[in-house]
Specification:
TIM Barrel; 13 strands; globular; alpha/beta; single chain; three-stranded mixed sheet; 16 helices
């Protein structure tokens, strides 16, 4: 199941700087595109005040203590680019970079391995205003310079890195439908932005492989659904294959093969820019591991003229339970996706870098949440991970999304994914039943202790 028996399985939780840190205009941090976006009425529920988030910038020691009490041995977090480089380049903000120095040192003191994401959607607003952000080709080397700064500062203590979080979402939300910063609605510009995100990854990985110890591992966090055909027809099965290549392959294929999937090239034509020979060279095998963020899978049908050139259309799944985000709960799509990723991308080690569910939590008088629905979600998805591992997929880590309730982007503070409840009025943290369950699950042996898939779920009994 695993080629490196000496490496411990990573049990962690994941967060993003903008969603938890707060202090968005303090100690030298400059605005990100999300600060600008939140200031536009109606774009982010709650507007600018929600950028207070969880005040992790001040409460990080308590948050690490909670991680330790849960038994986590790893923590995935992101660097706020405008906190360390307020203009996106040039002068370094000493207070900002020292914050991450302290955070890493404290994690290591508690034997919690950091996994750092360099870009989790908070582009410095200065780069958006000066260049047009990710749509400009110069953003790729600028990002590599930022990566170099962080590699030199933290690379002696941090061995696992992600360049980008979910570039698909950066493009879909930020450039296709306008629901995320920077709020554009132009598909051609979006494909150009996606192209430069991919190039930025390649440049940053090349920089990291020069500067970091050989033991360091670099990748990016890919988000994708798995796709089933709405029927067993040949047309719907082909539509499902196209959908998977159009989502997972859009960013996964360039990072491994050096170009987009053929079906995207054929159907999107000149909407997809071309990689230079040097770009393609840097891109090939620029993943040291697969990092997958998974939330749900979709059913699609062949639908000529739909899907922006892909001839696909989602089909509702009313028979499923849904999360508070309106997403279907589909653990049965997880293991097939892990197998597909394993086969397509060279049987690389795989880490689940996000997985979790938002639910309408109901706290008691003490702030405690008995979230059995979230426990069931985790239990089912961890069983799927175990199934993929039993089939030979080299899974080496699992990170729950998310450590604590936080700022859910354009939805403000209205959706809760956390293992820990955040009272946004007092900032009090209260571990939920799911946090206790996850802690006990890890202590009792994790995946190796899971009962066979045909045995009844025992989630509630573990609380």
């Amino acid at each position: 199941m695993r080629s490196d028996a000496q490496q411990p399985f990573l049990w962690g939780a994941a967060t993003a700087a903008l969603q938890i840190e707060g202090a968005h205009n303090e100690e030298g941090r400059a605005p990100s595109i999300w600060d600008v976006f939140a200031a536009i009425p109606g774009k982010v529920a709650g507007g600018v005040p929600v950028l207070r988030a969880c005040e992790h910038y001040r409460m990080w020691r308590e948050d690490i203590r909670l991680m330790k009490e849960m038994g986590l041995n790893s923590y995935r977090f992101s660097i706020s680019w405008p906190r360390v480089l307020p203009s996106g380049r040039g002068t370094v903000n000493a207070a900002g970079i020292e914050f991450y120095d302290r955070l890493v040192d404290e994690l290591l003191a508690h034997r919690i391995q950091p996994l750092i994401t360099l870009y989790h959607w908070d582009l410095p607003a200065a780069l958006q205003m000066e260049l047009g952000g990710w749509a400009h080709p110069d953003i790729a080397p600028i990002f590599a310079d930022y990566a170099e700064l962080m590699f030199k500062r933290l690379g002696d203590r941090v061995s696992m890195w992600l360049t980008l979080n979910e570039p698909w979402c950066s493009v879909d939300g930020g450039y296709f439908n306008g629901g995320h910063a920077p709020g554009a609605k132009d598909r051609r510009t979006g494909y150009r932005a996606g192209h430069n995100l991919i190039r930025a990854h390649a440049y940053a990985v090349a920089t990291g492989r020069t500067l970091l110890p050989k033991s360091a591992k670099l990748s990016f966090a890919l988000n994708t659904a798995y796709f089933w055909g709405a029927t067993n027809s040949r047309e719907d099965s082909a539509a499902a294959d196209r959908a998977l290549l159009n989502m997972a392959g859009w960013f996964g294929d360039p990072m491994w093969y050096g170009d987009y999937p053929a079906v995207m090239r054929e159907r999107l034509g000149d909407q997809l820019p071309a990689f230079s020979e040097e770009d393609a060279r840097l891109l090939r095998k620029s993943m040291d591991y697969i990092a997958i963020n998974y939330y749900f899978s979709e059913r699609v049908r062949h639908a000529p003229g739909q899907g922006f050139g892909m001839d696909i259309e989602p089909v509702a799944q009313p028979e499923r339970k849904h999360t508070a985000m309106g997403w279907p709960i589909t653990p049965d799509g997880f293991a097939p996706l892990l197998r597909w990723l394993d086969q397509r991308y060279g049987h690389l080690p795989l880490y689940v870098t996000e997985n979790g569910g938002a639910f309408d939590d109901e706290p008691d008088a003490n702030g405690y949440v008995n979230d059995q629905n979230r426990i069931e979600y985790y239990d089912q998805h961890l069983r799927a991970v175990k199934s993929a591992m039993d089939d030979g997929v080299d899974v080496r880590g699992y990170f729950a999304w998310t450590l604590m309730d936080n700022l859910e982007w354009s939805l403000g503070l209205s959706k809760r994914f956390g293992l820990i409840r955040t009272d946004f009025s007092t900032l009090k943290r209260t571990p939920k039943a799911s946090a206790r369950w996850y802690s006990q699950f890890i202590r009792e042996g994790g995946l190796s202790a899971l009962p066979a898939a045909d045995e009844p779920a025992v989630a509630a009994a573990r609380v």
